[in-house]
Amino acid sequence: MASAISETMSGTSPGSGTVAKTASSEMPSSSNQFGVQTMKKIGHRGVDSTGETTYKKTTSSALKGAIQLGITHTVGSLSTKPERDVLMQDFYVVESIFFPGEGSNLTPAHHYNDFRFKTYAPVAFRYFRELFGIRPDDYLYSLCNEPLIELSNSGASGSLFYVSGDDEFIIKTVQHKEAEFLQKLLPGYYMNLNQNPRTLLPKFYGLYCVQAGGKNIRIVVMNNLLPRSVKMHLKYDLKGSTYKRRASLKEREKSFPTYKDLDFIQDMPDGLFLDPDMYSALSKTIQRDCLVLQSFKIMDYSLLVGVHNIDHAQKESAIVDGQNNSDTKRPAAQKALYSTAMESIQGEARHGGSIETDDQMGGIPSRNARGERLLLYIGVIDVLQSYRFIKKLEHSWKALVHDGDTVSVHRPGFYAERFQRFMCNTVFKKIPLKASPSKKSRTMPGLTRRATQSAVPTHLQLTGESKQYLAVEGDLEQGESPVIAFIIVLLPAPLSTHSGFSFRCTLRKARPPSPNPTCR
């Protein structure tokens, strides 16, 4: 008999106690969907004898089906409830619904084994989705209209990643501690996002739990940083640390490897160049986001940087001779507000600049040291790590063997400072402003740069106790006779607003310079 349960979170983990026992007794452990024998594992992720991916012994196909059934029900039932302001207790509500295979008066029949689906803080997450302009029908259409797509490069964490068919959302499995931390984080975290939605921090749109085979599989729905329809020629996971921050040989063998800090320093020693306004906006956003993470004692996060090389993509497109290539076509506009890299940084740098592209596709325009045009897709990831006791122990142990300032596990304040310094000084660089024509020194016809430099030293230290200096400045006006102008400023050792004086010496090219030029 189907049952819809609304419960309040307590100190116990979701799915514990009576609910977990009920789910366990109703779901057989020997099934081709739940409880399947796993051949090899990375964390909770494994591959069964048929070659299908499993998570906690639940096949990926069964998990995807359960997720879509559960989200369809919970979003649909929530839409029948009147909208209201979010209360503090809304952050701690959990709704649970049981899905028997034969169906019920509340749930449809399905060909998976029985499972239970839990929704955390449904009213609060509805408000969060509205904050980013995501309507319920768009949310359902993106996640449930087409089969979810499993991403193969899921990293070393052992998590499963799914992407919606329209590239809008990412679904990631998270551990119990991460889900628990997100629950506690929600009120303050989204108070910050409500005040400033332009952020590189991840946007969480939903937190759910599938109870299958006696196991709790917790998932979170987030914004998708790297659209599949844009080819990423390079991808980096950057922390600002050097200890073990190089991609392994196994990672490099992947078709779409994720490189790390030392790889970036080796590949791009000059960094990625941005327009001054864009650099300033990005730096401010990183600084503000780090302050938010530090206030919540969050650490060990990374900046995910996807690099799309426009020049390489055009060459690749020419090679395929106009064939339809899904890697180079423009992605559909994302429905969520502030979801692209360009929208995530400060508003004043959203348009314009000297780096021109025909189609920015949501990326941040940039150039490398070779002058190639790039689009950057960036965002902060892995924020569900708090500086708890185990992290303190981990850092203390690593610091005994290695330099304590180079390891990635650090106290939140130091971690944030090092993160900002690495991103704003090493990864991203500012393109120097071009000098205005009115401020450029015009070289006299017939006067070589070498002759000018040899005749006029640009920085000459004078003798005397006052430590006076000679400063030279070119000053030629268009239409006038060619003139070399000097401004000499004598500054005493302690600078004073009334000390020092200046005089102007001119030498006209019309007549040979005399040994004692006139001064005025």
- Give the second-level CATH assignment, the architecture of the largest domain: 2-Layer Sandwich
Query: What do we call the CATH homologous superfamily of the largest domain?
Result: Phosphatidylinositol Phosphate Kinase II Beta
Top CATH class of the largest domain:
Alpha Beta
Reported for the largest beta sheet, the result is: 8 strands, antiparallel
Strand residue content: 15-25%
How many structural domains? 3
In words, what does this structure look like?
The protein is α+β, with helices and mostly antiparallel strands and 520 residues long. The chain folds into three domains: 4-223, Phosphatidylinositol Phosphate Kinase II Beta (2-Layer Sandwich), CATH 3.30.800; 234-430, Phosphatidylinositol Phosphate Kinase Iibeta, Chain: A, domain 2 (2-Layer Sandwich); 441-508, no CATH class. 29% of the residues lie in helices and 22% in strands. The protein contains 13 helices and 22 strands. The chain has helices at residues 18-26, 60-79, 122-131, 136-144, 176-195, 249-252, 261-267, 276-295, 310-319, 341-344, 389-401, 412-427, 449-455; strands at residues 4-8, 38-42, 45-48, 53-55, 58-59, 93-99, 115-120, 149-150, 161-163, 169-174, 204-212, 215-223, 234-238, 272-274, 302-309, 364-367, 373-381, 428-430, 459-461, 469-471, 483-489, 502-508. It has an eight-stranded antiparallel β-sheet with strand order 1-6-7-11-12-10-9-8. The radius of gyration is 31 Å and the shape is globular. InterPro entries: PInositol-4-P-4/5-kinase_C_sf, PInositol-4-P-4/5-kinase_core, PInositol-4-P-5-kinase_N, PInositol-4/5-P-5/4-kinase. Pfam families: PIP5K. This is Phosphatidylinositol 4-phosphate 5-kinase type-1 alpha isoform X1. Residues 59-427 form the PIPK domain. One of its GO terms (cellular component) is plasma membrane.
